[in-house]
Structures are given as C-alpha cells and as structure tokens.
Amino acid sequence: NTIVFILVIAALVQFVEMFLKKAMPSLYQSLGVYLPLITTNCAVLGTAITSISKYYYKGNFLKTAGYGLFYSVSTALGFAIAIVIMAGIREKIEYNDMLPSIKGMPVVLISAGLMAMAFMGFAGVI
C-alpha cells in the first residue's frame, strides 16, 4: 500500500509541476526544489495510510467516502494550524535574546515538544 500511495502522490506532484512550469513560470521558479519535496511529505502519506487502517473504505461507498474525505480534510486543516503556530513561534523566538547553547534548533525542538503535548490534549475530543 505504501508504494502505491507514494507513486500516486509523486504522479500528482509531477502533474502540478508540469502545469506550473507551463502556466506560471515565475511561481514555478520561486518554488524551486520545494515542489518535488512534496512527494516525500509524510503527512499526506500518513493520512492515507491511517484512513485505510481505520477501514474508511469498507461498507456503503458514499458513507465511507464522506468519512474518508472528512478525515483527510480535517487532518490537513490540523496540520496547517500546527504549521502556522510553529511559524509564529519561530518568528517570536528569532527576535528574543536567549542562551547561545539553545539558540536555533534546540529551542525549536523544545517548542515542538511543548506543542505536541498541547495538541495531545485534543485527543478524544470528538
């Protein structure tokens, strides 16, 4: 299953890359190497694998497709919220004085750990 999902994601990224190269060359050049890196985005792969492992594909097609779509969209929304919060925290950290030993990656990892603990509080809300 994992190989199929990676191939599907890679194909979709290639189509988007070709479209951007033809339709919007300036956007294509500004994205640079980051567009092909979407292929290895673990969040997309993790969502697909989790959706399959939760058996959203068994039963009535419309019902399961709705569950799968809702799960995928809400996972993407949660990931976007986490990324925006992390970007805000990194922006605040950048302009504050701190010990040289924790400046940079160590404080980012500490912040990510604290965010992970905060988001674990949402487990089981729905």
Task: Describe, in plain words, how this protein is organized in 3D.
This protein has 126 residues and is mainly alpha-helical. The protein contains six helices and no strands. The chain has helices spanning 2-23, 25-31, 34-37, 42-53, 61-94, 105-120. Helix 1 crosses helix 2 (25-31), helix 1 packs across helix 4 (42-53) and helix 5 packs across helix 6 (105-120).
How are the elements arranged and paired?
Layout: H1 2-23, H2 25-31, H3 34-37, H4 42-53, H5 61-94, H6 105-120
Helix pairs in contact: 1-2, 1-4, 4-5, 5-6
Q: Would you summarize the structure shown here?
A:
With 126 residues, the protein is mainly alpha-helical.
The gross shape turns out to be: flat
The helix tally amounts to 6
Q: Helix content range of the residues, please?
A: over 70%
Rg over CA atoms: 19 Å
Structural class: mainly alpha
Any low-confidence stretches, pLDDT <50, length ≥5? none
Characterize the biggest β-sheet.
Answer: none
What string gives the helices and strands in order?
HHHHHH
Mean pLDDT: 76
Number of strands: 0
- Proportion of β residues? under 5%
Distance between the termini: 28 Å
